[in-house]
Write a structure and sequence with these properties.
Blueprint lengths: L1 H14 L3 E5 L8 H6 L4 E3 L4 H13 L3 E7 H4 L4 H10 L5 E5 L17 H6 L5 E4 L3 H11 L6 E4 L17 E4 L5 E6 L3 H8 L5 E5 L1 E3 L3 H5 L5 E5 L5 H5 L6 E5 L12 H7 L4 H16 L14
Helix pairs in contact: 1-7, 3-5, 8-12
């Protein structure tokens, strides 16, 4: 997804001289062409994430459309105060673009894992939050939202899905409507695993790339079903819960740090976010719905 981010922003920069890139020693070589074409609009400031955000806010205050980019936990969780005060409080429009989401850097341990920032940034006034899942979404939504007069968060991944989705900002995608009593809702790259898990199951399937604002109208269509939220982060479950009185269940991250090493696929399998684990969670909810006495679904080890 990073190469698509670079290609889209470089193309836009040829048309809009207010676009500026601010980097923190990540993706510098990837933006070499941009830096050579537009040296006065390219700043690699090193490992100083709090400062990167403050500079981005300052550039926005002067009428520029900055893109600030580096590794997810450092640019978001480490810099919440600067995002809140410098960008959101002043409503300075800028684009925060991260890589290394959730367990993309699984082998680097808890310092490089990032799964809380979507939920945190959703709570900040004026913020728009996108959990992008495919290259098509990166291209389309950066084009429509980079100059939207709001601070905007774009979360990228090294493991995109290749499924066609609705590319309109703030709108979800109905991928399966079986008229089923169970609806699976998900967001971001994990859609690839969810689609594989649910392809032949009698469930409805709804996908989101925009977490704030969430598509409440689409959620409302399935309020009479049991909703299973499958997500490899926090933020989607909380966004869906803005629609009141839903019957919701969460299948995602355990309430524990990830102390295991390997690839993102290894970690997903360990916590039940591989296709087999997701399928088992959906089947368990279907079985309960079909039993004579339906009771609330007990939490599994992968639920909060």
């Amino acid at each position: 997804m990073r190469p698509q981010f670079k290609a889209t922003v470089t193309e836009l920069a040829a048309q809009d001289e207010r676009i500026v890139i601010v980097l923190g020693d990540v993706s510098v070589y990837m933006f070499k062409d941009f830096s050579e074409r537009y040296p006065k609009r390219f700043y690699n400031m090193g490992i100083c994430e709090n400062t990167l955000i403050s500079v981005t806010a300052g550039l926005s205050s002067q009428g520029y459309h900055p893109f600030v980019h580096t590794i997810c936990p450092f640019l978001t969780e480490r810099s919440v105060e600067q995002i809140k005060v410098d960008m959101c409080y002043n409503n300075f429009a800028g684009n925060i673009v991260t890589c290394g989401a959730t367990f993309d850097y699984a082998w680097d341990g808890a310092t490089h894992h990032a799964y809380t920032e979507l939920a945190i940034l959703r709570m900040l006034p004026n913020m728009e939050v996108l959990h992008l899942g495919s290259n098509r979404e990166v291209d389309a939504l950066i084009r429509t939202q980079y100059n939207n007069s709001h601070p905007t968060y774009f979360r990228l991944s090294d493991h995109p899905h290749a499924i066609e989705t609705n590319l309109e900002f703030g709108k979800g995608t109905l991928l399966k409507n079986e008229g089923a009593p169970v609806t699976v809702m998900t967001a971001g790259p994990i859609l690839g695993n969810v689609m594989e898990a649910c392809r032949d199951l009698p469930v409805n399937l709804v996908y989101f790339h925009t977490l704030k604002p969430i598509d409440k109208a689409l959620i409302e269509r399935f309020r009479d079903t049991e909703i299973l939220v499958v997500h490899d982060a926090y933020g989607l479950h909380e966004a869906i819960a803005e629609v009141p009185a839903l019957r919701m269940h969460y299948h995602g991250l355990p309430d524990a740090f990830c102390g295991w090493y390997g690839t993102v696929h290894d970690i997903r399998k360990r916590i039940g976010l591989d296709p087999a684990g997701i399928r088992a969670a959906a089947q368990a909810l279907l079985a309960r719905r079909q039993s004579p006495a339906v009771r609330p679904l007990a939490r599994t080890g992968s639920e909060r």
